[in-house]
Amino acid sequence: MEQSYVIFSDISADIPAGYAKENDIRFISMRYSLGDEDRVCEEIETEEVLKQFYNGQRNGDLTRTSQISPQVYMDVFTPVLREGKDILYLALSSGLSSTYQSSCLAAGQLKEQFPEREIVCVDSLAATGGMGLLLEAAVQNRKEGMVPAENGKWLEENRLKVCHWFMVEDLMYLKRGGRVSAATAVVGSALNIRPVLKIEEDGTLKNFAKARGTKRALNSLVDYYEAAGDKKPGERVYILHADSQENAEYLEEKVKQINPQCSVTKMMLSPIIGAHTGPGMCAVVHFGRR
User: What is the mean pLDDT of each run of 10 residues along the chain (290 residues)?
Assistant: First the structure.
């Protein structure tokens, strides 16, 4: 029997807006900036907004994001708890952000006010489409009758099956985030080097390979998918891109050649993650063997 509770995530997750609305997935807003303009991302952004964001990056606008404070969680969760509903919250990886820690602090305080309610916070150890895959699973688990604690346990037991393969075009964004050194960024850019990254088991981002040129980097993502993917009928695959539609279509074509029966969601990367990767980033995300 389907359970009734609210599934939350922070807005760094990438998942189709229609699916989120249909299944009542709610989001914690996050702040970001584009040049001198401060913005609040409350829902899945439209393609028009995202194109403007990545064009701004291409034109030299600096982009930043802000962490979510415990008070924001308390403000969002309190009305839901007052309605008598329980909460399952999936956070951006603790290896990339402090959102999970903030949510746990808020949940601890709210449990004192609402001791009869269940508030389950889960560290996804994932990002972007990886969170999308886990949210889809959480929705299905709720339909199959899992209560929040059971659902949260399932997510924790299966989150390390999510594989994230990334490539970026502009090394300077990784340099600003401390992912590569200044020397590596300058030399790599001069040599047309495209770093290939993955999310480690501790939820941190690791630069683990490199390729000369965009096409070779894209093919590397496909190779890693082929080696690690489940390749079952209906396999869910997310292809994310930072305003790089042609490259995303190339990835989709190659993935479907490997598994013609897979189900691909192709969408633009949220500005929360895109602020740190820059335009042109592409990713293939799926369940599999890391």
Answer: 91 97 97 95 95 95 93 98 97 95 98 97 98 98 97 98 92 65 57 84 87 93 97 97 98 98 98 93 95
CA separation for the pair 128, 164 (Å, rounded): 9
Tokens standing for residue 230: 């489940």
pLDDT value at residue 187: 54
Q: Can you tell me the distance from the alpha carbon of 12 to that of 270, in angstroms, rounded to the nearest whole number?
A: 6
| Tokens found for residue 261 | 């029966």
Percentages helix, strand, coil for the chain (3-state, rounded to 5) are 45, 25, 30
- On the CB side of 98, CA atoms within 13 Å amount to 9
Structure tokens at 42: 């409350």
Q: Which domains does the chain have, with CATH numbers?
A: 6-33+65-159 (3.40.50.10440), 161-287 (3.30.1180.10)
Instruction: Report the DSSP pairing between strands 6-10 and 87-91.
Output: parallel
